[in-house]
Amino acid sequence: MGALASLAPEGFRLMHIAEGILSPPVLAGGALAATVGVGIGLRRLRDEDIPRAAVLTAGFFVASLIHIPTGAGSVHLVLNGLMGLMLGWAAFPAIVVALTLQALIFQVGGLTVLGINTLIMAVPAVLVGRTVRPLLASGRSARTVLAGSAMAGGGAVALGAILGAAAVALGGREFHAAAGALLLLHVPVMLTEAMVTGCIGAFLHRVRPELLVPPQAAEPVP
Amino acid sequence: MRGVWGILVLLLGPAAPLFGHGVEARRIEGGVGLHAVYSDGEPMAFAEVTVTAPDGEIHQEGLTDRAGAFLFTPDTAGTWTLTADDGLGHRVSLDLTLDEGMVVVPGPRRRPPGRLPGAVTGVSLVFGLFGVWALWRASLRRASA
Q1: For residue range A117-160, what is the model confidence (pLDDT) as tens digits?
Q2: Rounded to whole angstroms, how far apart are CA atoms A82 and A201?
Q3: Pick from A24, A173, A206, A215: most CB atoms within 10 A?
Q4: Which residues on A lie below 8 Å from B120 (Cβ)?
Q5: How far apart are CA A196 and CA A204, in angstroms?
Q6: How confident is the model at residue A17 (pLDDT cuts 50, 70, 90)?
Q7: What is the DSSP letter of B109?
Q8: pLDDT at B108 over 90
Q9: Mean pLDDT across the stretch A71-98?
Q10: In the prediction, which pLDDT does A2 show?
Q11: In terms of DSSP H, where are the helices of chain B?
């Protein structure tokens, strides 16, 4: 008696839906939608952009392992906003690779929820990338680029939290309560993410502005 | 006067079994349970816990405490399943096998690798995968040229 087994939930704190919560049709739908996104991303990924995708995938994978303590709990960088800015649709294949490795190596998330978790991360990436892009054009002032990138970073996390709540609602929970709780939980992450993505965006705009043009601007590859 | 006592006895008589139904609390030492923590070390406090007995029936439902701990007292030997769900997409389950003395039989513990070795493995695989993808694209291009 008295055995108190300690264990960590399969799932990092942020925007990962664990296995066993969602029904098979929802999981299948998520997997299908994510597959379509990965397909579009791979078609748009030019050969010369593969190293960029690899670096961002590795960054996304490692960022989730580094927890920064804050006053209320700890946060880790998500970097999906940055991926949206730099990769566009190619964020889908990058994120699916990183999440697969997290599931296989750290038993985080899981392979059955891979599709849903990819959507939760990659859909906001593509959306903020598209929305913010006009603010990052070459003639823009440094302040505009900083603000635009920061909006992309914070916005992608906020959208991810809302999508996470929607996924939890599909598992039979109440959407508003989950969305409120998840958004509140992610406020420190949004702020950190906005700061980091803003700085990286401003820096890249100054030294390598072509990195802020995602692969989708190019002609489609055969 | 005797009549008054008689009336009292008549009134209280039927109520007596109710008064006899007292409750007593006895202390329990220990118990079996789980401690649910997020991967950043935060406790999974006040998460919904379901305890499933070896026969598949639900034995207990409740919440973890503020430290993410939950204890129950099993009544049969076999494999019990505990599931904790925070309602925000995190869920964890634990199987505990108990012997006749209600003591946990230690099973094989599957621990994820440490952060550093895991991170190195992951990053290597990322670059490996994208490298293979780039090589394949290059070979396609060469074939079409």
Answers
A1: 999 999 999 999 999 988 988 788 999 999 999 999 999 999 99
A2: 8
A3: A215
A4: none
A5: 12
A6: confident
A7: -
A8: no
A9: 88
A10: 37
A11: 2-12, 16-20, 115-144
- CB-side neighbour CA atoms (13 Å) of A166: 13
For chain B, how far is it from start to end, CA to CA, in angstroms?
121
CB pairs under 8 A between A and B: 160
Could you tell me which of B72, B30, B28, B29 has the C-alpha nearest to residue B49? B72
Sequence-ordered list of residues with C-beta below 8 angstroms from that of A189, at least 6 positions apart, any chain = A14, A75, A76, A78, A157
ipTM of the complex: 0.82
Q: Which residue from B29, B72, B118 is spatially nearest to A61, judged by alpha carbons?
A: B118
Residues in B 71-100 with any Cβ partner in A closer than 8 A: 71, 83-94, 96
Inform me whether the C-beta atom of residue B134 falls under 8 Å from chain A C-beta atoms: yes
Residue of A173, A38, A25, A15 lying closest to A112 (CA atoms): A25
Percent of all residues in chain B with a pLDDT value above 90, rounded to a whole number: 44
Count other Cβ atoms within 10 Å, centred on residue B28.
9
CB within 8 Å of chain B, chain A residues 154-193: 164-165, 167-168, 171, 173, 177-178, 181-182, 185
A residues 44-73 lying closer than 8 A (beta carbon) to B:
47, 50-51, 53-54, 57-58, 61-62, 65, 67, 73
Question: Does the beta carbon of A39 lie under 8 angstroms from any beta carbon of chain B?
Answer: no
Count helices and strands in chain A by DSSP H and E runs: 7, 3
Please tell me the least confidently modeled range out of A60-74, A162-176, B12-26. Answer: B12-26
Neighbouring C-beta atoms of residue B120, cutoff 10 Å:
13
Alpha-carbon span B113 to A102, nearest angstrom: 11
Q: Which residues of chain A does B136 touch, with a Cβ-Cβ cutoff of 8 Å?
A: none
Mean confidence (pLDDT) of chain A: 85
Could A20 and B134 be called an inter-chain contact, meaning their C-beta atoms sit closer than 8 Å?
no
DSSP state of A123: H
Q: What single-letter amino acid sits at A113?
A: V
